[in-house]
Amino acid sequence: MNYDKDKVAELFDGKVEHIESRPDDAMFKQVGSKALDALELNSDDTLLDAGSGSGRNAIKASRSCSRVIGMDISRKSLERAEEKASEEGLDNLEFLYGSIEDPNESTDLTSYGINKVLVNYALHHLPDELKKQGLTNLAGIMKRPGRMVIGDIMFFEDPEAHLEKFEEVGCDGGEHDHPSTVEFLKNTLEGLGASVRVERLHPLAGIMIADF
Ligand SMILES: C[S@@+](CC[C@H](N)C(=O)[O-])C[C@H]1O[C@@H](n2cnc3c(N)ncnc32)[C@H](O)[C@@H]1O
What we know:
alpha/beta, 8-stranded mixed β-sheet
């Protein structure tokens, strides 16, 4: 399975405007909205939004919690997110470069007091082994008790039986997208000690709520 982090970053550097102009019913937005609700943010929470894109969810979340850190590998997306946050006069969020698989690469996040983690529509870019590494590292920087919510393309049913639905969920079928089965994600999170609930939103997409 091909995975090249810099290629994915380049892809998203070139898609900032396209993603921002997607309609509200685009699957990643619907899933993101459910995932944000499932975080049950409150004023004491510090949230890490891993794969924050141009900051849509991070900015929304910043109004309901103490602090938000958005992290992404696409520098153009990070720049746009910073621009939007500053236009809105928000001072409780920051955006920094980092990857899901190596979240401490540019900044040591362990001292941030992060107790909530959101990963919306970003994890599926990684092959399963790196997803496992990423989820392990994200769980490792999270305070306890903590909650991680994953919203993403995830296979509730045999994807071969739903090939015509790939476009609906925004899956390219394998070039840059490597979605997992629900079972793989659930087992990985449970293996890290989380108690996991799953919400199906589509045969090929949903959210997973992991309490640590
Ligand atoms: C479809 S966008 C979703 C953005 C945002 N989470 C949202 O829901 O609007 C996917 C984002 O994941 C980021 N991404 C892809 N692979 C990543 C990785 N390994 N680590 C961090 N971010 C990644 C991309 O750069 C892109 O900004």
